[in-house]
Each structure stands twice: as C-alpha cells, then as structure tokens.
Specification:
75% of the residues lie in helices and 0% in strands. It is mainly α. It is elongated, with a radius of gyration of 17 Å.
C-alpha cells in the first residue's frame, strides 16, 4: 500500500468519500478565511487592530498550507468554487472592516463560530468512523478548531458584540 510522507497514513482502508469531502471543504473554508483576513487587513491593516488581525491571519495561512499538503497527500481535488471564495471572502472581509473594528470583529466571531461547529461535526464523523485510523487527521482538525475558537474569543474581546446590528450582521454572515 502507498504510504504518505506528510501524514504517515495509508490510503488503504480509509473512507475516501468522507475524507475527500472533509479535506475539500476544510481547504475551501481555510482559503475563504484567508481571503476574509486579507480584506480586513486591506482596510484596517494600519489601524490599532491591524496586528490582531494579522496574527489571526498568520494562523489561517498555516491552516491553509496544511490543507494544501493534505489535498496532495490524499489526492483530493479542490472545490470548483475557489474563484468564488477568492472574491467573496475578500469582499466580506473588506466590507465588514469598512464598518470599523467592531464590524470586522463581528465578522470574525460569526465565521469562526461556524467553522468551529463545522470542525466539531467532522471530529464526530471521524471518531464514529475509526478514531485510531484517522488519529493524525483528528489531531490536525482539533488543533485548528481550537485556533478558530481562540479567534472567536479574540473577536469578542475586541467589541464584536458592539458592532451596529450585531445579531443581524452575525446571522447574515453565518
């Protein structure tokens, strides 16, 4: 069987459709998150919140890099919607940042909450499948979920809930 250098797992015996879906969706999500933070930095990069956004973006860049590696290792094709995520993510990031720091942080809270929930669902799926077989992938997803939760909390600490029409904005973004 083929061993994958970057993940130390074999393709033999995995539930390929489930793994393909998880990796494809997570790659698209991390790609979109990168574009959101790029849009926020374009507007707020030189503001007092710029370093906070940059720090979260740096973690998202690491997430995307890892999913790029996993796509190759597991032979997963990217979603055909990447061009859409490219534009939509940047517009969402820049648009929320145009509302100011609070608007950008409201966007961060909304996105990161959804992503954390999504990762939790994937963790449950992989644990139900075979936690030992998917141990390394579970470890990656759990770490990234924890990072997303941290971003969510950073957004709350930076007055996300004080954004204009926070509940409406959060719901619309999610």
């Amino acid at each position: 069987s083929l061993r994958l250098c970057s993940t130390r797992v074999t393709l033999e015996g995995i539930n390929k459709p489930v793994i393909d879906r998880i990796i494809r969706v997570d790659h698209a999500g991390e790609y979109g998150a990168n574009r959101i933070y790029a849009g926020q930095m374009a507007v707020l990069g030189r503001s007092s919140v710029g370093p906070v956004i940059q720090q979260m973006w740096n973690q998202e860049k690491d997430h995307l890099k890892k999913f790029n590696e996993l796509m190759v290792a597991y032979r997963v094709r990217p979603t055909v919607l990447l061009p859409f995520w490219n534009v939509a993510g940047f517009v969402l990031g820049a648009g929320s940042a145009l509302l100011g720091k609070k608007g950008a942080m409201a966007c961060t809270v909304a996105i990161e909450e959804s992503i954390s929930d999504h990762y939790n669902s994937q963790i449950r799926t992989l644990v139900d499948e075979d936690p030992e077989k998917y141990k390394e992938l579970l470890q990656i997803i759990k770490q990234f979920r924890d990072d997303e939760r941290e971003h969510h909390d950073v957004g709350l600490e930076h007055d996300a809930e004080a954004a204009p029409a926070y509940s409406v904005l959060k719901t619309a973004i999610q």
